[in-house]
């Protein structure tokens, strides 16, 4: 089938929830994708950060093939070896003591809120149930996580939303302090707001939030669904700030492209959950856990976190140079290979569309922001290709 036939079939059979670009991908390898017509593309989105070690990494493919031939699913009524090994690996790499596996970042965040609320009832007081989150934040598309997300335009069509969340501006400690009441039990932040526009927490701000939580007996939740597992040039973004959360959610790059999420907590908080309090039929199944174990080995053995830090710094300097050469770029933001540029004009979507025929895949957030989430194995040479295309397109509007 040609591309137009695919588009027509999608329009006929699929709910219209996505604004798709006119391309049908059929194959991926490393930092590249190929469409149904055989055209090659350099991918600087990596499945919104899911394929962070590259598309179809041989180690992940081999792990999945091996596992799927032995055991696919038995549910969480029983122990499975890959899940236990993955839990041990994640706990060993992070601040935490216990983890729980889900199928996505939104599900992981749902579990986080359940855990925190139960812990708060047991330890902080019956009336403490509210979580403070930030405007522009994004924590998922379930009804509860939509309520947590600080984007009114996303919330309005689905109101009334579940209660229990208060929103404040990011990087404003005064506003955070004012929002804390006798109902507050936790603060939930993304170290870098991804879907909100690539806005990082300032160093003093996140350290200040940690101090406020300690002083007031509140829990600090970090949503590292997009920032975790090497994306920012460190294994976890909280390491940039010299602090630790009490609970953290992960997903995106964990499964090497397969759907898996988790949340990790310190022992004191984790023990609030008892059998029957939470569960997931598919969560932490043998196949996805095997994929995640392979992906974590690749991160380590191929030095991808270090590569992310080095190439990310190179990429950011190149983007900043583009900004100095023209008037279109207002600001460059982010760490590692989670970068965004804010434009003076609302042409981000046009730039994304025009980059596609040139064989470059980038992403826009709204009208003014371009976002880059390339695989962590990207090279300086591949960055140069994207910079050249981006420079040409920016000049068209400058």
Describe this structure in words.
The chain is built from 14 helices and 17 strands. α4 (81-93) runs parallel beside α11 (286-301). The mean pLDDT is 97. With 398 residues, the chain is an alpha/beta fold. It starts with a helix and ends with a helix. The chain has helices at residues 3-13, 46-49, 58-70, 81-93, 105-123, 143-148, 152-155, 173-179, 203-216, 267-270, 286-301, 304-325, 348-355, 380-397; strands spanning 25-29, 32-35, 40-43, 98-102, 130-134, 165-168, 184-189, 192-193, 199-200, 219-223, 247-250, 261-265, 329-335, 338-343, 360-361, 363-365, 369-372. The chain folds into 2 domains: 58-301, 3-Layer(aba) Sandwich (Aspartate Aminotransferase, domain 2); 303-373, Aspartate Aminotransferase, domain 1 (Alpha-Beta Complex), CATH 3.90.1150.10.
Which descriptors would you attach to this protein?
398 residues; alpha/beta; Aspartate Aminotransferase, domain 2; Aspartate Aminotransferase, domain 1; 2 domains; 7-stranded mixed β-sheet; 14 helices; 17 strands; globular
């Amino acid at each position: 089938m040609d591309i137009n036939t695919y588009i027509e079939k999608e329009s006929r059979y699929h709910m219209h929830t996505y604004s798709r670009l006119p391309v049908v991908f059929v194959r991926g390898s490393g930092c590249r994708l190929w469409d149904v017509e055989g055209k090659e593309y350099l991918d600087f989105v990596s499945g919104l950060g899911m394929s962070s070690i590259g598309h179809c990494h041989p180690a992940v493919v081999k792990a999945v093939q091996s596992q799927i031939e032995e055991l696919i699913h038995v549910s969480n009524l029983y122990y499975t070896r890959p899940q236990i090994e993955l839990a041990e690996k994640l706990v060993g790499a992070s601040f935490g003591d216990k983890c729980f596996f889900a199928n996505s970042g939104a599900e992981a965040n749902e579990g986080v809120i359940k855990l925190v609320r139960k812990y708060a009832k047991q330890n902080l007081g019956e009336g403490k149930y509210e979580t403070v989150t930030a405007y522009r934040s994004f924590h998922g598309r379930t009804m509860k996580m939509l309520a947590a997300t600080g984007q009114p335009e996303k919330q309005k069509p689905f109101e009334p939303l579940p209660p229990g969340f208060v929103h404040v501006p990011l990087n404003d400690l005064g506003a955070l302090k004012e929002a804390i009441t006798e109902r507050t039990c936790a603060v939930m932040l993304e170290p870098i707001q991804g879907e909100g526009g690539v806005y990082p927490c300032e160093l003093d701000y996140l350290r200040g939030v940690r101090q406020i939580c300690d002083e007031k007996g509140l829990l600090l939740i970090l949503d590292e669904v997009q920032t975790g597992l090497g994306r920012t040039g460190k294994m976890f973004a909280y390491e940039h700030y010299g602090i630790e959360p009490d609970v953290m959610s992960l997903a995106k790059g964990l499964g090497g492209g397969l759907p898996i999420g988790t949340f990790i907590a310190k022992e004191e908080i984790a023990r609030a959950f008892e059998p029957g309090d939470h569960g997931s039929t598919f969560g932490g199944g043998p196949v996805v856990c095997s994929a995640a174990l392979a992906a974590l080995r690749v991160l380590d053995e191929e030095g991808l976190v270090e590569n992310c830090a080095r190439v990310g710094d190179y990429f950011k300097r190149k983007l900043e140079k583009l900004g100095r050469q023209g008037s279109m770029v207002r600001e460059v933001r982010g760490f590692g290979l989670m970068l965004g540029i804010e434009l003076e004009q609302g042409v981000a979507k046009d730039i994304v569309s025009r980059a596609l025929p040139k064989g470059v895949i980038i992403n826009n957030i709204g009208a003014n922001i371009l976002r880059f989430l390339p695989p962590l194995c990207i090279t300086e040479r591949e960055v140069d290709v994207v910079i050249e295309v981006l420079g040409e397109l920016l000049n068209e509007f400058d």
